[in-house]
Amino acid sequence: MIKLTESAVKRVAEMVAKNESAIGLRIGVKESGCSGYSYDLGFAEVIDDNDTVIEQDGVKVIIDNVSMPILDGIELDFVKQGLNQSFKFNNPNVVSSCGCGESFSTTK
Question: Which of 6, 14, 37, 65 has the most CB atoms less than 10 A away?
C-alpha cells in the first residue's frame, strides 16, 4: 500500500489540475546512481494493464507492476523548506542510499 500525506495530496491535485492530459501522478523507479535505483515521477496520461492505481482523497497515483514491490509501503510527502520544495519518499524497503541521497538500494 502507498500513502500520501495531506500536503502530498494537495500538491498532486494542484499539479494534475494544471495539466489537461494528466489523470494522475505516475511514480516508478529506474536503475540509476551508485546505489541502484532512483525515483521517477511524472504525469500519467493513461493507465496500462500492468499498472496499479491507488486513489486517495480524490487523487490518483499510478505505479507500474515492476516498481510496485520496491515502492510498496511508501509514504509520499511534500515538504517546503525555505525556497525549496520537493516530494519526499519515506520508503521502508530502502536498505542503503548513496552519499548524495539521489539513489538507493533495497538489498544488502
Answer: 37
